[in-house]
C-alpha cells in the first residue's frame, strides 16, 4: 500500500505515492530523476548518497522516503545558483578534490553539512567529521582543503 509524501526537493514541491519500503535515495534517483546522488554501497558505509534533509546531512540509502513527509531536501543538483557554482563546488575544483567524481556529490553535500555544523575549524577536524565519506581514488587532501577553504569563505 503506497504512502503519500510531500517533499520539497531543491526548492520544488513534489507530492508522490511511494512504497513505504522505498529508500529516499531510490525515490530521488528513480522517481525524481535526480541521479547526482549516487548509490554506492547501499548500506550507509560509503557516504556517496549523502544529502541534506532539513539542513542535516544524512545517507539517503538508509532512510525511508515515507519518513520524510514535509521535509526540505537538498541534493547536489540544487546547489548552483543559476550558472554560479556553490562556494564548495568551486573549492573542489580549485583544490582538485576529485578524481573519478563518483563520490564527489556526497562529499560536497557532506562538506556543506560539516561546515554548517561548525566542524571545519581545522583540516584535522574536517578529516574527522568527513570520515563517513569514502573516496576510493584517495583525493582526501584536496577534499579536506576544499572544505576548509569553503568554510573560510562562508
Short description:
This protein has helices at 24-31, 87-94, 104-116, 123-129, 140-153; strands at residues 3-9, 12-18, 50-53, 56-59, 72-74. The chain is an alpha+beta fold. The protein has a five-stranded mixed β-sheet, with helices on one face.
Describe this structure in words.
With 154 residues, this protein is an alpha+beta fold. It folds into two domains: 3-78, Beta-grasp domain (Ubiquitin-like (UB roll), Roll), CATH 3.10.20; 87-153, DNA polymerase, domain 1, CATH 1.10.150. It has helices spanning 24-31, 87-94, 104-116, 123-129, 140-153; strands spanning 3-9, 12-18, 50-53, 56-59, 72-74. A five-stranded mixed beta sheet has the order 2-1-5-3-4, covered by helices on one side. A hairpin with a 2-residue loop joins strand 1 and strand 2. Helix 2 packs across helix 5, helix 3 crosses helix 5 (140-153) and helix 4 crosses helix 5. The longest helix has 14 residues, at 140-153. The radius of gyration is 15 Å and the shape is globular. The protein starts with a strand and ends with a helix.
Estimated radius of gyration: 15 Å
- Tally the helices: what do you get? 5
The CATH architecture term of the largest domain is Roll
Number of strands: 5
- Which CATH class of the largest domain? Alpha Beta
What oligomerization state is this entry in? Answer: single chain
Termini separation comes to 45 Å
From the 3D structure, determine the CATH topology of the largest domain.
Ubiquitin-like (UB roll)
The CATH homologous superfamily of the largest domain is called Beta-grasp domain
Q: Can you tell me the overall shape?
A: globular
Amount of beta strand: 15-25%
Strand order of the largest sheet: 2-1-5-3-4
Helical coverage, percent range: 25-40%
Chain-averaged pLDDT:
96
Structural class computed from helices and strand pairing: alpha+beta
User: What count of domains describes the coordinates?
Assistant: 2
- List segments where confidence is low: pLDDT < 50 over at least 5 consecutive residues: none
- Largest sheet, if any? 5 strands, mixed
Q: What is the succession of H and E elements?
A: EEHEEEHHHH
Amino acid at each position: 500500500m503506497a504512502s503519500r509524501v510531500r517533499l520539497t526537493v531543491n526548492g520544488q514541491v513534489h507530492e508522490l505515492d511511494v512504497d513505504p519500503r522505498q529508500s529516499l535515495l531510490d525515490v530521488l534517483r528513480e522517481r525524481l530523476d535526480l541521479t547526482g546522488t549516487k548509490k554506492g554501497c547501499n548500506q550507509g558505509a560509503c557516504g556517496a548518497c549523502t544529502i541534506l534533509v532539513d539542513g542535516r546531512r544524512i545517507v539517503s540509502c538508509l532512510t525511508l522516503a515515507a519518513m520524510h513527509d514535509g521535509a526540505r531536501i537538498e541534493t547536489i543538483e540544487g546547489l548552483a545558483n543559476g550558472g554560479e557554482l556553490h562556494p564548495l563546488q568551486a573549492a573542489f575544483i580549485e583544490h582538485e578534490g576529485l578524481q573519478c567524481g563518483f563520490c564527489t556529490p556526497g562529499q560536497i553535500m557532506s562538506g556543506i553539512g560539516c561546515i554548517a555544523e561548525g566542524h571545519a575549524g581545522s583540516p584535522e577536524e574536517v578529516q574527522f567529521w568527513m570520515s563517513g565519506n569514502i573516496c576510493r581514488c584517495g583525493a582526501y587532501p584536496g577534499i579536506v582543503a576544499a572544505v576548509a577553504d569553503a568554510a573560510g569563505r562562508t
